[in-house]
Amino acid sequence: MEKLVERAVVEALGDGGSEAIRLYVAAGTERMTPLFMGLRASTPGRESDLDFYAESVRDLWYADRPLADAAERVRLLEQFPELQPNEEGITDVVDTYAFFAVLTLRYALLAHGSGSADDAVSCGHAALTAMGMLDQNVAGASLLAEEQRLQSLSLSSDGAGLWDASVTAGRERFRAVLGRLPRQSCF
Q1: Other Cβ atoms within 10 Å of 180 Cβ, number
Q2: pTM above 0.85?
Q3: Mean pLDDT, the chain, as a whole number?
Q4: DSSP class per residue in the chain
Q5: pLDDT of 73-111, one tens digit each?
Q6: Which among 129, 162, 144, 130 is positioned nearest to 24, based on CA atoms?
Q7: Rounded distance, CA 37 to CA 116, Å?
């Protein structure tokens, strides 16, 4: 499978060390967070999943040290419905983008715990895939290009302003997904 992550980003992840990898995956996951949190907020029985997701994203921002419990968090995340096999597959808008948000977090946790550039690239690839799909379905959208720009920024930055840019981008993504939903939908 060809990765969507730009070659320069892949090389920077390989050369940047564990802290650069952790900052990259924290920022990427932050940008995907509104998709999971917003799309699953009104789903009965998912309160603990929402809390777990939010706590994990918060903890990813501690880029100066790996998460000691990253493997356990991955194990718990893999029990989320979004990552369970389904004979029908993922067919609706809400489930599609919630899946990509959970997948991004999964790879981010793996990368954060291990310092693996390959897991970080997979995290970035999941986010880029989701944004590419969204671009195809929203007229005039350029979310893929914005994700590529922010991925590069996260490796050329000390983190200043990166969190704000990631939060803003995440909100824009959520608004774009909401715009694809039927008006009467309550998720």
Answers
A1: 15
A2: yes
A3: 92
A4: ----S-HHHHHHHHHH-HHHHHHHHHHHHHHHHHHHHHHHTTSTT-HHHHHHHHHHHHHHT-TTS--TTHHHHHHHHTTSGGGS--TT---SHHHHHHHHHHHHHHHHHHHHHH--HHHHHHHHHHHHHHHHHHHHHSTT--HHHHHHHHHHHHHSS-STTHHHHHHHHHHHHHHHHHHTS-TT---
A5: 999 999 999 999 888 888 899 999 999 999 999 999 999
A6: 162
A7: 26
Helix 162-179 and helix 93-114, axial crossing angle in degrees, nearest 10: 160
d(CA 175, CA 180): 9
Joined tokens for residue 159: 């983190």
Give dist(CA 106, CA 92) in Å, integer: 21
Q: Which two tokens stand for residue 83?
A: 């990552």
